[in-house]
Design goal:
The structure is a single chain. This protein is α/β, with parallel strands linked by helices. The chain has five helices and six strands; from the N terminus they run βαβαβαβαβαβ. It has a six-stranded parallel beta sheet, with helices on both faces. Helix 2 links the parallel strand 2 and strand 3. Helix 2 runs parallel beside helix 3 and helix 4 runs parallel beside helix 5. It starts with 6 loop residues before the first strand and ends in a 10-residue tail after the last strand.
């Protein structure tokens, strides 16, 4: 497996439409299975919601599997400036524990979130998502991943309208 084939990217909604305990449990179980299949790099976009949950889960799993790494691909410097204090603190903690951080833009520019999402997919061999609704950045990223030929695992347990 080359580096890209060993890499899983995350994309998901900022809001959880399922019980958070269910999402965390599904995420932990899926991540452990992926590690056992040889995936070693996990790439998150640093957004609120699923991105944060996934990054934290990788860090927790890294305690048991030190060969795995967390990479962050951030759309721009300072994306967290308007977040609540508790959200910023969690973000800064994850940032400090990540194995690698790539910042795509010095400042916010129109389209930088989509640029980040394409970067996640373009540098991964598998997409792990939490997708419930059609539309928005998560849906866009999953559709882009499929067009690029990446397998997609949806932790939400349902397909989008387009897929049915």
């Amino acid at each position: 497996m080359d580096v890209r084939e060993q890499t899983v990217c995350f994309t998901g909604h900022r809001i959880f439409y399922h019980d958070i305990v269910f999402v965390k449990s599904s995420l932990a179980e899926t991540l452990e299975g992926l590690v056992q299949k040889g995936y070693r790099r996990f790439l998150a976009g640093g957004a609120l919601g699923f991105d944060t949950l996934a990054a934290a889960a990788v860090l927790e799993l890294r305690d048991r599997f030190p060969s795995i790494s967390l990479m962050l691909a951030l759309p721009c410097e300072g994306q967290q400036t308007r977040w609540r204090a508790d959200q910023r603190a969690r973000y800064e903690r994850i940032l400090s524990l990540a194995d690698e951080v790539t910042v795509l833009n010095e400042h916010y520019v129109k389209g930088c979130m989509h640029e980040r999402n394409r970067y996640l997919v373009d540098n991964s061999g598998l997409c792990l998502c939490y997708l419930v609704k059609k539309g928005g950045g998560t849906y866009y990223t999953v559709q882009y991943a499929k067009k690029q030929g990446l397998p997609v695992i949806n932790l939400a347990g349902r397909e989008t309208e387009e897929d049915t």
